[in-house]
DNA sequence: CAGTGAGCGAGCTTCCGCTTGACTT
């Protein structure tokens, strides 16, 4: 009898399942979706109930062809794509393409790749759920409509129009970044004076140790000083001691989003790096599937964990736990991310090791006992006033899961009271404490930090926007479009005050700290800010943080058969299309224009705005008799925050420094950074020079040096033919006009001796056999 | 490589969500 064909989405899964199912089944993968909407006219028939037009993209032709061949000679075809909306749709597309009847073809599901799960799935086949398929089609069509209607609006209304795009997910992601930036810009720090007293006491071994106690905060310096004054000659006595047990519980096993967050915090990985490494681990069979929103573990994994934990740490360290997903939008088609074999504590591959060990620890900890703590709070009263001080300490009684894993937190989640608490020396009731000193230290409130890639993913997940398979690509998209950039920001030095009471004398000290420094954070560009404002103005419903959640409810109704998908799309599309048409007709071009003030020299208006080539400042207006003057903003400047003085500074370039060898020497900033221009030649300026301050005396040696360096790089020049023989970082090469030609290895030995005819031959040779390039993806349909 | 900032308006771009693989330096 012919084998049955079982189709899954992932090839790694196919290999595992084939082993489990044995001889009766040939298991193949379809590599995700096999059809997509055509691009022409959005691939949707707007006049015929939004009937979609699908096609098989070029890169899917091969796999579809193979599946067709195998299907033909197989007994029965079984569809085992993922158990979610997208998976159901893939099964239906497979029916369509392979000529199977969706009403009779066997459809099976499992959300873990274990023998019992798969065997039980095979025992209970069903057929394709067309309601669920329709919910997916509605999702796909709505996203296509939003993307392909909105993007062209930007092309028409933006002055900068290269490759701009908008979409249900990416545009909201940019909005999140943009709004955080504005919150930070609008933030005004408030300072308070925090009271900290240092006392001495004897520890268990009888040694004197210093510990601290906190008092309340004063918003005014005078009040803090008044308090310190009132503490002179005071006695400090312990009046109350509270000892309370506490516990900490482990976090759930990893999902895609939490893995990305922890790998970012603990290992400093970008979300795409995390995914590349996780993919490698998955393909080599080391971990379960890495694109998942589920926190549950299979029963086999739970058994495995029970014995591993008991063996390694002893039975008291084991505690069985079932985690529930907090996220309503989760579809849980797979398990949580976990090692396939808990007995493997590490992996060979050095690149993947740190990520694997993180996953191992997190999984292990998830089934371990709570950590038990003892928290002590001592209240200390002051004889000379009514204030009291609080000393607190924490002792770990049982480490439990902390033996293997501690979850990190983002900056914005750490509350002020949550600083690491140390141990307290043993204290007795009514014990008098000798005071070392009391400090009132000025502390400033902080704005929320900018997003990292991973904290943006977390935010998107909370809002139900995007899916595990799209978090990393979404971030790439908004970076590539230039809406957002990832960079560091230097902090600012800030002074703060300290009042100190020591030996009954109050002294006032000053100190300084760095504030506002950010590393590898997401910043909106002016383009991102301007596009976000525009979309919010004309398409506020799509930009709404809850838009996705709302339409997801409707997709659910479609999936439950309570709502017809094309009626749902119709209700969305009609008003949306009206907004699009209205915007195209009425909206002005977007420039993000901001008036900065008046140029003191000419008396003309100075404005900052988006130009064709990015953000810029301009003196005077288009209709003025005299042409306006323009200057580009620096990378770190923004239309929103630049002031008149900074703008005027930008107009100081180009600076003419003087005359050298009868030619003008000038400095400017170009597309590739600051440069010196002299005699129609250009010399880049290194970081050590500032184009605004560099002098003639500093500039001329640079010209001479760079000229010499260039001469050394030049081996031969054939003026007439415009051919140069040059020495580059990868060895000698030929340059003709703008094109470079590689010299074959065997001729690199004696380049000095190369004659014109030989060089010409090399050029012809390279032209005839051009070096292979990465083939550009073919445009579909 | 080192400019530009406006307007012609050809012909192009673009979405989200499933999956990897085969290019080059």
The secondary structure category is alpha+beta
Shape: globular
Mean pLDDT reading = 90
Low-confidence stretches: 772-781
The largest sheet is: 5 strands, antiparallel
**Strand residues, percent:** 15-25%
In which range does the helix fraction lie?
25-40%
C-alpha termini separation:
40 Å
Beta-strand segment tally: 30
Q: What strand order characterises the main sheet?
A: 10-9-14-16-17
Radius of gyration: 34 Å
Number of helices: 21
Structural description of this entry:
- By secondary structure, this protein is an alpha+beta fold.
- It has a five-stranded antiparallel sheet with strand order 10-9-14-16-17, covered by helices on one side. Strands 2-1-7-8 form a four-stranded parallel sheet.
- The longest helix has 28 residues, at 130-157.
- The chain is globular.
- It starts with a strand and ends in a 13-residue tail after the last helix.
- The protein binds one DNA strand of 25 nucleotides through strand 3, helix 3, helix 5, helix 13 and strand 24.
């Amino acid at each position: 009898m012919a084998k049955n064909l079982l189709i899954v989405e992932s090839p790694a899964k196919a290999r595992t399942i084939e082993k489990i199912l044995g001889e009766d089944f040939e298991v193949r993968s379809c590599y995700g979706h096999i059809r997509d909407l055509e691009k022409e006219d959005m691939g949707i028939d707007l006049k015929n109930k939004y009937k979609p037009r699908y096609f098989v993209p070029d890169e899917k032709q091969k796999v579809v062809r193979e599946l067709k061949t195998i299907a033909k000679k197989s007994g029965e075809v079984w569809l085992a794509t993922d158990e979610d909306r997208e998976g159901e749709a893939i099964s239906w597309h497979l029916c369509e393409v392979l000529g199977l009847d969706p009403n009779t073809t066997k459809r099976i599901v499992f959300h873990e790749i274990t023998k019992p799960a798969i065997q039980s799935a095979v025992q209970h086949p069903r057929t394709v759920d067309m309601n669920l398929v329709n919910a997916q089609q509605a999702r796909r069509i709505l996203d296509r409509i939003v993307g392909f209607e909105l993007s062209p609006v930007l092309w028409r209304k933006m002055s900068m129009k290269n490759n701009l795009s908008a979409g249900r997910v990416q545009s909201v992601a940019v909005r999140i970044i943009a709004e955080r930036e504005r919150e930070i810009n609008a933030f005004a720090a408030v300072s308070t004076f925090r009271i900290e007293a240092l006392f001495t006491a004897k520890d268990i071994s009888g040694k004197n140790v210093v510990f601290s106690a906190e008092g309340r905060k004063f918003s005014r310096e005078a009040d803090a000083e008044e308090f310190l004054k009132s503490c002179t000659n005071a006695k400090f006595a312990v009046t109350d001691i509270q000892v309370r047990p506490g516990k900490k519980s482990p976090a759930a096993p990893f999902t895609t989003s939490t893995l990305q967050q922890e790998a970012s915090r603990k290992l400093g990985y970008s979300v795409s790096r995390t995914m590349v490494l996780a993919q490698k681990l998955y393909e080599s069979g080391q971990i379960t599937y890495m694109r998942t929103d589920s926190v549950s573990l299979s029963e086999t994994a739970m058994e495995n964990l029970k014995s591993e934990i008991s063996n390694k740490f002893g039975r008291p360290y084991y505690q069985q736990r079932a985690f529930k997903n907090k996220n309503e939008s989760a579809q849980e088609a797979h398990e949580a991310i976990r090692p396939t074999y808990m007995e493997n504590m590490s992996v060979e591959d050095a690149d993947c090791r740190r990520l694997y060990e993180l996953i191992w620890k997190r999984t292990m900890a998830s089934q371990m006992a709570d950590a038990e703590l003892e928290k002590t709070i001592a209240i200390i009263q002051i004889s000379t006033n009514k204030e009291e001080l609080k000393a607190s300490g924490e002792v770990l009684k049982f480490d439990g899961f902390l033996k293997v894993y501690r979850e990190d937190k983002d900056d914005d989640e750490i509350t002020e009271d949550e600083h690491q608490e140390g141990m307290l020396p043993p204290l007795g009731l009514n014990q008098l404490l000798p005071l070392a000193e009391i400090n009132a230290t000025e502390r400033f409130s902080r704005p929320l930090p900018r997003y990292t890639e991973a904290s943006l993913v977390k935010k998107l997940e909370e809002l139900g926007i995007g899916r595990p398979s799209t978090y990393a690509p979404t971030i790439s998209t908004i970076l590539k479009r230039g809406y957002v950039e990832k960079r560091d920001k230097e902090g600012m030095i800030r002074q703060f005050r300290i009042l100190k009471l020591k030996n009954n004398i109050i002294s006032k000290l000053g100190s300084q700290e760095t504030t506002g420094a950010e590393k590898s954070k997401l910043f909106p560009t002016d383009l991102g800010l301007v596009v976000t404002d525009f979309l919010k103005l004309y398409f506020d419903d799509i930009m709404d943080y809850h838009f996705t959640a709302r339409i997801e409810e409707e997709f659910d109704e479609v999936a439950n058969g309570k709502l017809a998908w094309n009626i749902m799309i119709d209700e969305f599309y009609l008003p949306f299309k009206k907004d699009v048409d209205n915007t195209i007709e009425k909206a002005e071009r977007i420039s993000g224009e901001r008036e900065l003030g008046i140029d003191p020299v000419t008396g003309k208006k100075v404005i900052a705005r988006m130009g064709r080539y990015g953000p810029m400042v301009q003196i005077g207006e288009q209709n003025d008799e005299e042409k306006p003057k323009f200057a580009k903003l620096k990378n770190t400047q923004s239309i929103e925050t630049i002031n008149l003085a900074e703008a005027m500074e930008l107009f100081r370039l180009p600076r003419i420094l003087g005359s050298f060898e009868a030619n003008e020497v000038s400095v400017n900033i170009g597309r590739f950074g600051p440069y010196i221009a002299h005699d129609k030649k250009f010399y880049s300026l290194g970081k050590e020079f500032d184009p605004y301050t560099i002098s003639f005396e500093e500039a001329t040696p640079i010209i001479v040096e760079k000229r010499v360096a260039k001469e050394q790089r030049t081996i031969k020049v054939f003026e007439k033919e415009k051919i140069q023989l040059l020495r580059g970082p990868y060895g000698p090469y030929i340059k003709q006009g703008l094109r470079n030609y590689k010299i074959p290895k065997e001729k690199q030995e004696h380049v000095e001796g190369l004659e014109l005819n030989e060089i010409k031959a090399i050029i012809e040779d390279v032209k005839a056999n051009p070096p292979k390039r990465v083939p550009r993806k073919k445009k579909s349909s």
